[in-house]
Write a structure and sequence with these properties.
Two copies of one chain form a homodimer. In chain A, helix 1 packs across helix 4. Chain A is elongated, with a radius of gyration of 18 Å. Chain A is about 70% helix and about 0% strand. The first copy, chain A, has two domains: about 60 residues, Homeodomain-like (Arc Repressor Mutant, subunit A, Orthogonal Bundle), CATH 1.10.10.60; about 120 residues. The first copy, chain A, contains ten helices and no strands. Chain A is an all-alpha fold. Chains A and B meet through helix 6, helix 9 and helix 10 of A and helix 6, helix 8, helix 9 and helix 10 of B. Chain A binds a DNA duplex (30 and 30 nucleotides) through helix 2 and helix 3. Chains A, B: One of its GO terms (molecular function) is DNA binding.
Chain lengths: ~180, ~180
DNA sequence: TAGATTCCTCTACAGGTGTAGAGGAGGAAG
DNA sequence: CTTCCTCCTCTACACCTGTAGAGGAATCTA
């Protein structure tokens, strides 16, 4: 699908160069398409940004169904997969920051797995599920952000390895604990 | 100081419009300076970005000295002040993301209070201070990020209020616990 | 096969952006 | 007062970006 080729290229671009690198022509080049293609599918830049964010949300939706018998483990595996898909996750941070000044983007990103995590935390019987859920999500979000963006990048075990999953699982368990 | 006027305007701009809004002329306008001023002080865009990040680091350095008698409380107050200075913190996230593809920026941002937090955690006698410090920092970073950027913005109590500080303090205490 | 329709490519253009340098105002040094 | 120097403002220009539309190729319909 042409649209997906375009939006996938957009994701790579944003991960590598930031939102500033997201221009119609740059996407054409990155995707190996003739000049003007991106502009034809997404006439305005606003449309391009929205397409990019929609694609991100779609890709993330496919990611995971949590396993009720191994909550911490399945969450850890999801987190690890997000570390592995470094560019996608970086692009997501850029998108979230962008949503700060373009609220339309927020609705596109709602109902992602991250929202599910909050819901999950609520079900685990904390005394104050609202806050516990927020703290839990914050912790996971922070863990990812810290590893990918903070502290001179890539702290901790190599993503995609069993050690990485184990390390993340420990952290998730700690966070789930009341 | 002219340079500070310029870089302060840059920070506002980035917070409000993202890195894409950071152009020489936009800074001139935002700072109410005659066109060309920013370009005179920061000839290239790279220089402008570096100036902006340096200013951020400087401002943050002034922020806090942790109180040894009330570790959680003083950290909570710092976090709260970062929530209050919303634009500065948003600009910081943009800068961190930018540092992902421009490593020179990382060295400018090193030795910020956030690094101190890691060091602090190490001193609190966890069995694995390295990881505990990382988790601690991740949690705080995530808490901030979640409140400011994630989840449709501003969850939790109004920043700057005693309730906000109390809420943060609870979270910090939980995170400090082994 | 002929015509209609969709999809794609190319080209155009007005504005914005990065960067450079000429020149002036005003203070410092002699 | 004259000369020099620093700091600032203005103008210039090549290039990039967003956006539009004309036309052609490919596909579908009858």
């Amino acid at each position: 699908m042409r649209r997906d080729v375009i939006t996938d290229a957009a994701i790579q671009l944003v991960a590598e160069q930031g939102m500033r690198g997201l221009t119609h022509r740059a996407v054409d080049r990155r995707a190996g398409l003739p000049e003007g293609s991106t502009s034809a599918y997404f006439r305005t830049r606003k449309a391009l940004v929205e397409g990019f964010v929609e694609r991100l949300a779609d890709l993330e939706r496919l990611d995971v169904v949590p396993d009720p018998d191994d909550v911490a483990g399945s969450i850890a595996r999801t987190l690890d997969s997000w570390l592995v898909e470094r560019n996608r996750t970086l692009a997501r941070y850029a998108a979230m920051l962008e949503a700060t000044h373009h609220p339309e983007l927020k609705s596109i990103m709602a109902h992602s797995p991250r929202e599910q995590a909050t819901a999950l935390a609520k079900m685990l019987g904390h005394t104050d599920p609202e806050r516990a859920g927020a703290h839990f999500t914050a912790f996971l979000e922070g863990l990812l952000f810290y590893r990918l963006v903070g502290a001179g990048s890539t702290v901790g075990p190599e993503p995609g390895t069993p050690e990485s999953v184990r390390d993340l699982k420990d952290a998730v368990e700690k966070a789930l604990r009341p």
